[in-house]
Write a structure and sequence with these properties.
By secondary structure, the chain is of the alpha+beta class. It has one domain. Helix content is about 50%, strand content about 20%. The protein is built from six helices and seven strands, in the order αββαααααβββββ. The strands form two sheets. It has a five-stranded antiparallel β-sheet, with helices on one face. It has a two-stranded antiparallel sheet with strand order 1-2. A hairpin with a 4-residue loop joins strand 1 and strand 2. Helix 5 crosses helix 6. The longest helix is centred in the middle third of the chain and has 22 residues. The protein is globular, with a radius of gyration of 17 Å. The N and C termini lie far apart (about 35 Å). The relative contact order is 0.14.
Length: about 190
């Protein structure tokens, strides 16, 4: 299966996961939010580049490798299938998918909302630097796919993101995560997630 078709099929799963509602005693979320949170939390299985390709930038091949990118799309579909029991009918033969750029735009339509919802639900003070850094990298890359985050570094109460040109820092001060550029304390991290 070619990468474009693979991405189109994964988009159908992402859409279904976004539409599936999960309600618990103290929460309500979409199935997509649940899947993304579990992927963010599994830094052993999913590296930053793979999760960016799955969630934020499917139209940018991971390491410029379409085969590896296809494996990422398949992994996301399988994760959605296993966690949410979502099955789609077989793909009709002869289906012509949209161009990759359009597929990326359509994916981000769902994932940006899911990432905003995740951030609004989490207790900021309880987030580990790695989890927060991965969530922030995903959100910024979804919002600005041409300047996606290429690397992150974490330390005690600090997260650095790098987009290939500029680095941003996020530091936990007094229980609140703050966004810094250089030594300038720009704003609460909440302002990033708008």
């Amino acid at each position: 299966m070619d990468y474009q078709l693979n991405t189109a099929i994964t988009n159908a799963y992402v859409h279904q996961a976004f539409e599936k509602k999960i309600v618990g005693p103290d929460f309500a979320e979409s199935g997509l939010e649940q899947v993304i949170k579990n992927i963010i939390g599994d830094d052993i299985t999913y590296g930053l580049g793979a999760i960016l390709n799955m969630i934020a930038i499917p139209d940018t091949p991971y390491k410029e490798d379409f085969e590896e990118s296809a494996r990422n799309q398949t992994a996301l579909r399988e994760k959605i299938q296993s966690e949410l029991d979502i099955q789609l009918p077989p793909v009709p033969s002869g289906l012509t998918p949209l161009p990759l750029k359009e597929l990326g735009i359509r994916r981000r339509k769902y994932t940006i909302q899911a990432l905003r919802n995740i951030f609004s639900q989490v207790v900021e003070a309880q987030l580990s630097p790695l989890w927060l850094c991965r969530l922030t990298a995903l959100f910024v890359s979804t919002k600005f796919p041409m300047a996606y985050i290429r690397d992150i570094q974490t330390g005690p109460n600090v997260c650095f993101t790098y987009d290939g040109v500029a680095a941003d820092a996020y530091r936990k001060i007094g229980g609140e995560w703050r966004h810094f550029v250089g030594d300038i304390n720009l704003s609460s991290i909440k302002d990033v997630f708008v």
